[in-house]
Fold this sequence. Notes:
The complex is a heterodimer of chains A (495) and B (469). By secondary structure, chain A is mostly helical. In chain A, 75% of the residues lie in helices and 3% in strands.
Amino acid sequence: MILTAALGLPMLGALALAVSSRWTETTARRCAIAVSVLPVLLLIWAWRQFDPQGALFQFVEEVPWVPSLGMGYRLGVDGIALAVATMSALVFSASIAYPVDTKHQPRQYYAWMLFLQSVSLGVFLALDLLLFYVFFDLSLVGMFFLIGRWGHGQAQLAAFKFFLYTFCGSLLLLLAIIGLYQSVEPHTFDMRVLIEQQPLAGAGMTAALVFLALMLGFAIKTPMVPVHTWLPQAHVDAPGPVSAILAGVLLKMGTYGIIRIPFAMMAETFSRHALVIALFAVASILYGAFVALGQRNLKRRIAYTSINHMGYTVLGIAVAGALIQDTGYARELALVGATVEMVAHGLITGALFLICGSFWQRTEEYDLDSYGGLLRQAPWLTAFAVLASFASLGLPGLAGFVAEFHIFAGTFGVYPWLAVIGVLGILVTAALFLQMLQKVFFGAMPERWAQFEDLRPIEWGVLAVLSAGFVIIGVAPAFLLTLVEASAALLVGGR
Amino acid sequence: MPIGDVLPEISLTLGAVAIVLFASFVRQRQHHWAAVLALLAIGLGAGLTVAQWGGTPRLTFSGVWALDGVALASKLVVLIAGALVVAMSPEWMRTDRRHGEYYALVLFALLGVIMMASASDTMELVLGVLLSSVASYPLAAYHRGWAPALEAGMKYFLIGALTNTLLTIGVVVLFGLTGSTGYPDIAQALATDSDRLALTIATACVVLGLTFKLAAFPAHAWMPDVAQGSPVPAAAFLTVIPKIGAAVALARFVSLLPPDVAWRAIVASISVATMTLGNVAALRQTDVRRLLGWSSVSQSGYALMAIVVLGVSDQALPALVFFLASYAIANLAAFAVVTHLRGRTALDDYRGLARHAPIAATILIVSLLSLVGIPPLVGFFGKLMLFRVTLEGGYAWLALVAVINTVVSLFYYLRIVAPMMFGSRQSAVHLLSGQWARSAMAVAGLLLIVGGLGAEALSLFTGSIRFAL
């Protein structure tokens, strides 16, 4: 019941907020924060109970939903899902607690946030392909309303573009899911059965088509170059906390989906195309880094670094799926790295986008060139921004380094030349973050920011929690690595 | 005569007659009681249909009338949809001098649609199409003092006259070819050698005749006008219910044809043309009712996908009925909201509705999302079944075309959703007073969600249905 409670409580909270017409902003906010913390606690509890030596999927819950179709309400986690889900729940709590202009509709804002928390956790906890798809699609609906209603700039257009683009991917996914479903006898959407049976192995053209549809669907969500174009505008026009969720949680649905479905269920087909995926991943790494370097808009710059970082993750997954002889350990390293990168990127980019939100609340301005010298004016803000930036560019001792080290160590073992090219991305990322910090926080401060206010207690409190997350993973990653390694070994070696 | 086999139809007929008599003797103020009578007749018909459920699939009345799972299931869907239409009407029709007769027409039209779904004989089919048509023309033009309603009625009538003629020609050629009108005999005669050219002509004519009732390309042009100009409850009726009968009739007809008639290709190309045309035309609409009309053209295209794989995938018929049921609920819910909002039709009137009429706005949004196929609403399961049988039947390209169309359709559905949620309005929202339309709206909205969560029940209900022939 832990997992059902983890995704059910926020849903109940959302319903309560939606129907309670008399609550004030403060009550709604407090209630939302309280409810959003519960899944974090529940998942941490599950983490402590998780047995790394045990079965691949644990805490399994199963209730038939449409048995005649082979669909059920099936939940369960392996180490990878548990790590990503816990991180997601934490990012949600942080984003809900982070102050934002709710435009006189606080109840609706918090209700949508809790709804989105519930369905996002559903994506990571589902063990049923169709249930996975249900949550995957519902997350689009939640995000559409959040961006459209509480965004700024061309919010409605951004929301539109986001929904259309990602819905296109999700429909391809649906076709592929049906293809997988048809390929097992008796037909079922149960992920455990599909992972065990590898139904499309050696199925030639059908397998290739299903695989293509799956990868396209997830590549759009991730996003990978060249299907990333929905991302920058959605990020720039969304409110800060919503961007934090978009980058921290929703993008992970793409990479997590790749691990869970094509990687785990179609190992043979995946290995045949692993190099192509790795090439696209490296393209995303380089493209994301260079385009980010060229941005003058603070939020846009961070948005493009997400493309770069998700590129690392996909590179790790592609390497892990390469199935080349005698590279088992390297491939396991890469998969662990990909998972850690998901967690690290969620926390780090979550923090960076929340910081962007603080900028927007104070100045309604994202142009890097209009800032300068904020270090004296806002030391706390500077401190957290510097910490998160360093974590993002992969400084040792912070979470990003642990992840990237694993990924590149693994890649060296399988595709050494790709690792060499990919490392260039880290260099450019370092340049772009340092330049950003320099432009915003150092140098002379323009007159107009004389009244710039430093972080309020609630803001730095939230950022401190997220920062603690990526500092701890950076310094003492063992607790995360044990959890992930167990499942990664089963997925890579047990096949 | 096995009269017991058509008791549901008899209850509808008697109900309609009773309503006509009732309406001619009672004051106009009391005419809403005719709606109660109509609901009683429909309820009785539905109850009798349920009583027929579970028997072995068979043909009755010398093989002209089908009593199989498909006929019964579509009959039930038609009756439930008809009840919703009746329930959303009384307040809308209150000021009309001919309030009572309206319900008699609805019942006759329902009867026609049920005949189409059950006909196992070409003459019977023509009769069903004609009965449903003649009862529908006045429904479309019921507000005879209002020019758009008249225009809608005229257009509906003219296209209907043309296509009904084509249908009759097709039936006559088929008769000349096989010497019989009953489906069992036709199937038998066609299995042996026959003139392929004549058969192609007959097939083309019958299919064209049925595309009119389906609002599929090329006989779809009446749909947007009817959706925009007819009384909203009548529009709800005409955009949904005739389709159910026509789709089943088409499926029944094509399943008779020998494999060397390229009917799969014909239906597949009509399907693609219909969904694409409907979607593209809906894109630029700024009139919500017209947009819903075009969207329901495109939905007919989806339904045809199931007919394309008939006989290749064993789940094609269940998928067809499941999809039609889910589509009917969603479209009726949308039109129930429009009725409740006094039929307002300009997109601008919907701005900021989420704040001023939250329940209506929510139901409209949910119904549109169901039409797109967002899970876990009932529309998702309808689309899922369709995609499944299309892929299973080896028509992956058709499924892909449908996916692209679905993305396009999301665009225009969002064009209604976005202003409702994000916009703000100054003026107050005027709603239809009274409980009828409100309850119909609530019931339809509830069905959207309950139908999705309880998809198992719907799929059990449709799961094993097949043709008697």
